[in-house]
């Protein structure tokens, strides 16, 4: 491939004009020091993320060890009130969550189906979120 003198001359003119305007200097500076991508999360999104994490931790503690403190007991009580019966929560294996209903009159324990247990696990998570949000709102009102 051969280049004519005219083509080389045009390239040099364009380069000279860009140098005069400072365009190539800015471009090379930007390439040497690229600006890092910035991610900004709103306060509301941070709050929601934190509430979700706390609710998930509460649900996990309840399923592993049973309710240990007043918040966890409140969450289980609300779930029992919505279901209308006393519950026992346990884990079978590493991932299967099993809910059992306890009939106080006859003292019988009935295991719920996998679908019902999954529904109650989601409901437990939702109630935990609601409880955390109520506590947070109460604390903000007291400030």
Word description of this protein:
The chain is of the alpha+beta class and 143 residues long. The protein has 2 domains: 1-38, no CATH class; 43-142, no CATH class. Helices cover 65% and strands 13% of the residues. It contains 5 helices and 3 strands; from the N terminus they run ααααβββα. Strands 1-2-3 form a 3-stranded antiparallel sheet. A hairpin with a 3-residue loop joins strand 1 and strand 2. Helix 3 crosses helix 5 (114-142) and helix 4 (70-83) packs across helix 5 (114-142). The longest helix is centred in the last third of the chain and has 29 residues, at 114-142. It is elongated, with a radius of gyration of 31 Å. The N and C termini lie far apart (78 Å). The model has no long low-confidence stretch (mean pLDDT 77).
């Amino acid at each position: 491939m051969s280049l004519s003198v005219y083509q080389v001359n045009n390239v040099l003119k364009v380069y000279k004009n860009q140098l005069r305007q400072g365009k190539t200097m800015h471009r090379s500076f930007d390439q040497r020091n690229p600006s890092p991508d910035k991610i900004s999360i709103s306060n509301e999104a941070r709050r929601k993320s934190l509430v979700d994490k706390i609710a998930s931790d509460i649900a996990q503690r309840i399923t592993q060890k049973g309710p240990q403190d007043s918040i966890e007991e409140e969450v289980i009580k609300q779930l029992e009130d919505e279901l209308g019966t006393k519950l026992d929560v346990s884990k079978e294996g590493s991932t299967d969550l099993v809910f059992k209903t306890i009939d106080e009159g006859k003292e019988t324990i009935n295991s719920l189906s996998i679908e019902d247990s999954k529904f109650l696990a989601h409901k437990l998570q939702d109630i935990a979120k609601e409880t955390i949000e109520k506590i947070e709102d109460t604390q903000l009102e007291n400030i």
